[in-house]
Amino acid sequence: MKFDKITMDHGSGGKLTLELIENVFRATPGLDSAILGDIAFTTDSHSIKPLFFKGGDIGKLSVCGTINDLLCVGAKPMYLSSAFIMEEGFELDELEKIAQSMRDEAKNANVKIVCGDTKVVEAGKGFYINTSGIGKIIRPIDGSNICENDQIIVTGNIGEHGFSILNERENLNLASNLQSDCAQLTSLILPIIESDLDVHWMRDPTRGGIAMCLNELCYKRDFGVEIFEELVPISEEVSSISEMLGIEPYYSANEGKMVIVANPVDAPKILDILHSNPLGKNANIIGNITKDHPQKVLLNLNYGTKRLLSMPLVEKMPRIC
Amino acid sequence: MFAIKAKVYGIIQGVGFRPALYNALKKYTGWVRNSSCCVEIYIESNRILNIEKIIIKNKPQNAFIKSIDSVIFKIKKHAYNSFIIKYSKGDAQKNINITPDWGICKKCEQELFDSSNRRFLHPLITCTDCGPRFSIAKDGLFDRNNTTMNAFKMCKMCATEYSDSSNRRFHAQTISCKECGPKYFYVKNKQVELKDIKAVKKAAFDLENSKVGLLKGIGGYHLICNAFDEYAVEKIKYIKKREEKPFAVIAKNIETAKKLAYLSKKEIEILNSQIKPIVLAKYKDERLKFVNLKSPFVGLMLAYAPIHLLLFYFSNLECIVATSANLSEFSLIYKDRDAVNFDGVDFVLLHNRKIIRPIEDSIVHFSLNKQIIFRYARGYAPSPFYLKGVKPNILALGADMKNNIAISLKDTVILSQYTPDLSNYENYEQFNKKVNDFLSFFDIKKVDMAICDRHPNYLSSNYARQTFANVFEVQHHKAHFASVLLENNYTGDCIGIVLDGTGFGDDGNIWGGEFFVKMDKTIKRIGHIKNMKLYFGEKAIKEPYRIAASYIYDITDDIEYVKSLFSDYTDVIELMPKTPYLITSSAGRLFDAVSALLNIKHKNTFEAQSAMLLEYEAKKHKTSKILDYKIDNFVVDFSMTLKTIAKRRDLVSARLFHNTFVEAIYENTMSISKLTGIKVVALSGGVFQNDIVFSLLYKKLTKAGFNVLFNSRFPINDGGVAVGQIYIAKEGLCV
Ligand SMILES: [Fe+3]
Ligand SMILES: [Mg+2]
Ligand SMILES: [Zn+2]
Ligand SMILES: [Zn+2]
């Protein structure tokens, strides 16, 4: 497939996004934040429909996303910038609410929003927030020492943001108590960064879900990943919607989860720390790093076979359809 | 004095070709040897010989001669004083004309049960005419040292036969006997309990007593049991986690086979041939009811390995279940270690001749007495197919759900054995190995061009995109169409009718009911089945009621009505207006939709189940009536048909739908022919596995004066896509 125009899939975080980074921006797809000596630096733009959703809004999302990206590389989040692109006619009341939830979330995370920018565009062009963040590296976690048999931990139920947003946006009226897991994970992850437990890699599995996240983990590396269906935490709500719509939670977005790759000896201890925090109560070890199938992510199904969790080039095009 | 040099091309290795020529030519002086792509002969004679005639007259039964080149020149004196077989040259290029694995031949069968023969009851008896080939060959040169038979040193007797030109095992690479050959072992709880004939006897006894076993045959392991034993069959269903899909069976002999099923002459012929595929035939024996509950067909084989014959010999069984040892649709087990560790069976009966590449049983079916291949594997792969002209080395990766890859080398095209759905990792690994194996087996050092499907998410395509520098992508149904042109060696103008499940279309939608026109060097889509909205993605394929609901909703725009049609699923149906959909012109999905509308099958437990059940239902009704449909600008619209069927919901609609479908396809073909003046039409795609669709359409088109081409040598379903991909690249067609 050759593309000469940007498609939605170039923004999916999947294979086409990686190709854009490599071929157009001539950069290496890497960590969620840049590690610059003692400093971690990252940026992220946020667009979401609806702007206000169960479990959060675009303001909270923009703060949490950048904070989590800083945590990924072993940094303590310190400062954020915020830039708004707003369409003409946007309700000031709504902007007020968004700003408030940004302040709240920043305060919870002990982070300061220190600079910002606003631009107004024509009506109908939408509402977007970009945040950049700076953190102080406690210890760099850069994926360079991932080893075979490292354990893979996910800090809670997967797919909730994606399913909840779909439910709300399309008015599906399914699972009334399902909400986005949108959260900043400072209180959950910082203790682990500050401990001496041997963590090798972290990433927040946002768009593309854990499937995409794990594919990035082994992208062009000499190892692969295997996870086990029975170990992956999934809520009743998510699995019933998944069953009804035929959409897989593995590919569904999370906004308040972390995938942690850790030394097998320390993994259970990390799990204990996670379990002591309500944000990590459903955390589980879901699989491990393996050299058996480099660059491949395999899902071991409960009935004994292995399925390839591939990185689709075009997200909404089923293989067998 | 003359010398004649000849080169013989075709299927000539592993078929006893050199020995046969030796016997025919031993009164002369000279030699015969294998070399690159052919067998070479040099003869000295006092008069000019018609070498072509001699070769053709003396060719062994499984040899296939493509062509013979010969030159005659004068010589002064003999250079040789006898006729000899020269051994394959060390530097000889690998031969691309290796044969598939052959089923046991009549002569070996006679010897097997002749108590005076030294191979009496030898469970691994073979000869130059039969036995394993491709599954045990290390590379493309079929000499004993290049097969896994090299682990067995010939005993004196065998060695004598091997070098005796009057013996029928003269130069039989797989020669063995009870003394020196591989042996069978009876394994229980990972322990070898018995060997040789005792092992076979015990397994036969076990089968009589409702036991379930794993049996190593030629290209892999089968799960086996007495097919008439309800308890044992249930056990296999449990092991395979497969409730509804019928199992293939091996009948004791052709007489038994005739008792079990209605067999046509052609069907008997292929059952008896050395290909020995599974034949899908209409069953008549009630005792088969445990192996196929709903299907009127039985997948029938005859014993193809001597061990099968022996199991019948040592028991009172008439028919055994022989289904690939694996979980449904996953990779075939072929390694002894995996077999011994397999859970749930009572015993394992294995031999110590190693299998290099797993090969499943092939499946064929006859429509209008014409062979339609459902699965291309043992007995077929890797037969060479010859095209005109020398072209670059091409590798075609095929499709994802049924994967056969193909290579093209000079003038030869070879389709590989089948691998099921690649999203299962074991299958994907098999696919990966198969590609590398094919390249090294046929000694392709450089792939000039790799061809894959255009689908953005096919694993086979992404493999190609990542692995090869020069990748060319071909639309799925154009490849289907081209596969027919290839196997018919047809290069003229042609109308292509591809009635298929689904494939990625050039417009980004999902295609599957396509009308193409090939003129000169271009293939263009001229018409199709009308696009329908399909909700729920892959889930809909597994649960066809979702397809029916999608289509009826698309047609009527009345969600309450759709809910009333499927009252069990209102919670799901309610979601449709709010969820994303795909757009498809699939033919196969229409059959799923009708099957669900008629409450024949709402949810599939295996691929294409609902469509098959619809076909079986249709066969019960004898009417030629049709329902309404519409054609507009070569777009065939079945909206009215579906609407009517949703109202009627009577079983005769199964037949009415088939009639209507064929009529509409026919009418559209007629208009395309009128427009283009083309009277040649090619049929391909999985929907042609449907006997009613194929026969009805074939008859109508033939009656209207069309020359109807279709897939008979290669699979009509996705298994044949790879050869179509090759054809498009080879012919440089503009698609
Ligand atoms: Fe197809
Ligand atoms: Mg980010
Ligand atoms: Zn034989
Ligand atoms: Zn011997």
UniProtKB/TrEMBL annotation, chain A:
Return the Pfam families for the record.
Answer: AIRS, AIRS_C
**One GO biological process term:** protein maturation
Q: Where is the PurM-like N-terminal domain?
A: 33-136
* Biological source species: Desulfurella multipotens
Concerning its family, UniProt says: Belongs to the HypE family.
Residues of the PurM-like C-terminal domain: 149-296
Top-level division of the source organism's lineage: Bacteria
The protein's name in its UniProt record: Hydrogenase maturation protein, carbamoyl dehydratase HypE
UniProtKB/TrEMBL annotation, chain B:
A Pfam family assignment: HypF_C_2
What family does this belong to? Answer: Belongs to the carbamoyltransferase HypF family.
Q: Which UniProt keywords apply?
A: Hydrolase, Ligase, Metal-binding, Zinc, Zinc-finger
Q: Which residues form the active site?
A: 18, 34
Q: What is this protein called?
A: Carbamoyltransferase
Q: In which pathway does it act?
A: Protein modification; [NiFe] hydrogenase maturation
Q: Which reaction does it catalyse?
A: C-terminal L-cysteinyl-[HypE protein] + carbamoyl phosphate + ATP + H2O = C-terminal S-carboxamide-L-cysteinyl-[HypE protein] + AMP + phosphate + diphosphate + H(+); an acyl phosphate + H2O = a carboxylate + phosphate + H(+)
Extract one GO BP annotation from the record.
protein maturation
Ranges of residues in domain Acylphosphatase-like: 3-87
Q: Does the keyword Hydrolase apply?
A: yes
EC numbers on record: 6.2.-.-
Q: Which GO terms describe its molecular function?
A: acylphosphatase activity; carboxyl- or carbamoyltransferase activity; double-stranded RNA binding; ligase activity; zinc ion binding
Residues of the YrdC-like domain: 197-379
Q: Which InterPro entries match?
A: Acylphosphatase-like_dom, Acylphosphatase-like_dom_sf, Carbamoyltrans_HypF-like, Carbamoyltransferase_HypF, DHBP_synth_RibB-like_a/b_dom, HypF_C, HypF_C_2, Sua5-like_dom
- What is the organism field in this record? Desulfurella multipotens
